Protein: Helix-turn-helix transcriptional regulator
Organism: Lentzea alba
Amino acid sequence: MGGVSDVTRPADEHDKFLFDVFAQRCPSRSTLEHLTGKWGTLAMVALHEGTFRFNQLRRRVDGVSEKMLAQTLQALERDGFVHREAQPTIPPKVEYSLTDRGRHTAELLLGLIQDVESQMPDVMEARQRYDAAR
């Protein structure tokens, strides 16, 4: 039933892999974690709004620590979703933006966020009913 158990090479294609996020060692799993973790999703959608310097992005993503934002951006840059541009000025000016891949994925994440936000009145009612029944 559901895909390959690990990352495997298809017999007819020697340079492409089949990826299965459900397989423990599949590299797509860590990419999914980078994108769908709270800070990854928020950073991606914020960057969908435009280019940000680090502290601007940190203010936009309220509540993220400097360390977590730096780690998140580094992972997203490594995966090819975020572009980091450091200009040789004093002090250095570093800007973050989305790559083409990042823009595509950020649009999907933005749709998810908009869907969640639109359902929040019903979610809040469901939480109240659940809590009242406990």
